[in-house]
Amino acid sequence: MARYIDADALYEKAAERYYNAVSEEDRQHVAADIKQMIADAPAVDAVQVVHCGECAIKRSVNVFGNYFVWRCPLRTTDVKPEGFCEYGRKAE
């Protein structure tokens, strides 16, 4: 499973380490330090969501024979591809 980290905070820490390196030899060690920073970076509290466009539950409904909309049977509403809810299941 993926581990999500705060990339902005990590970048600030790595940039500070790089710019504080005084010699070229110090800078050569920065790559190893950054690799260790990534390994040690705390995971953020994130929840993976399934967008309606990728959801297995959505249904395509013909409206007046002119166009199709996606409808969610759980929410009984039309949905947009970028929408999401807590019930989504990714289509296989």
What report would you give on this structure?
The chain has 92 residues and is α+β, with helices and mostly antiparallel strands. It has two domains: 7-40, no CATH class; 47-92, no CATH class. It has helices at residues 7-19, 24-40; strands at residues 59-63, 67-72, 77-79. It has a three-stranded antiparallel sheet with strand order 1-2-3, with no helix packed on it. A hairpin with a 4-residue loop joins strand 2 (67-72) and strand 3 (77-79). Helix 1 packs antiparallel against helix 2 (24-40). It is rod-shaped, with a radius of gyration of 23 Å. The two termini are 17 Å apart.
Mean pLDDT: 82
Tell me the structural class.
Answer: alpha+beta
Amino- and carboxy-terminal Cα gap: 17 Å
How many domains? The number is 2
Radius of gyration using CA atoms only: 23 Å
Largest sheet: 3 strands, antiparallel
Order of helices and strands: HHEEE
Helicity range of the residues?
25-40%
Order of neighbouring strands in the sheet with most strands: 1-2-3
Count of separate DSSP helical elements = 2
Strand content: 15-25%
Instruction: Please report the total strand number as a whole number.
Output: 3
- Multimeric state: single chain
In one word, what is the shape? rod-shaped
Unreliable spans: none
Descriptive keywords:
rod-shaped, alpha+beta, single chain, 2 domains, 92 residues
In a nutshell, what does this entry contain?
With 92 residues, this protein is of the alpha+beta class. The chain is built from two helices and three strands, in the order H-H-E-E-E.
